[in-house]
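Hey, I was hoping to borrow your eyes for a little while. A protein chain has come my way and I'm curious about its shape. Take your time with it, there's no hurry, and the full record follows here:
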Amino acid sequence: MEKIIFYCLAAVIIAFGIASVTSRKMLRSVIYLSFVLISIAGIFFLIDYNFLAAIQLTVYAGGIVVLIIFSVLLVHHIEMELEMAKASKKIVTAIACLIGLAVFLTAIYSYDFEVINNSITTTTAEIGAGLLSYTAGGFILPFEVISVLLLAAMIGAIVIAKGKKLTENNNQSQ
């Protein structure tokens, strides 16, 4: 049964991933992306990585998708149509993806995975303490850097989008 669920989730991820990058409507692309991220959380739940699944749902499927939708709505481009790439760019992108896939598969199949039977489990409290720890092995600095980076990316996107609109409005009024 788990195998069937996995293949269904994988099919949803592939289908909506392709739909997300090929859709010309911005809002539809974001919705398709949310289906991909929710399906990835489903795979995490399936392999009993509940903490990662919860993070996937809250941060990515919740926060990032809402941030993108908010940015799209803020600049009033709900029905914005994305331009289609030229055939040469599509071919270069496909070749780059195939090279990346080859490197990925080579790395995976060349690594000797060993199953470790460990009775020690990590609790959510220990993960949270490690994420917010200032000591060696703590992740508070990368956590804060990513927060600032996301904020800067959102502000940059808004400034770029509003800058075009403001320039167009000033040219029309003169």
The CA atoms of residues 45 and 129 lie 22 Å apart. The longest helix spans residues 140-173.
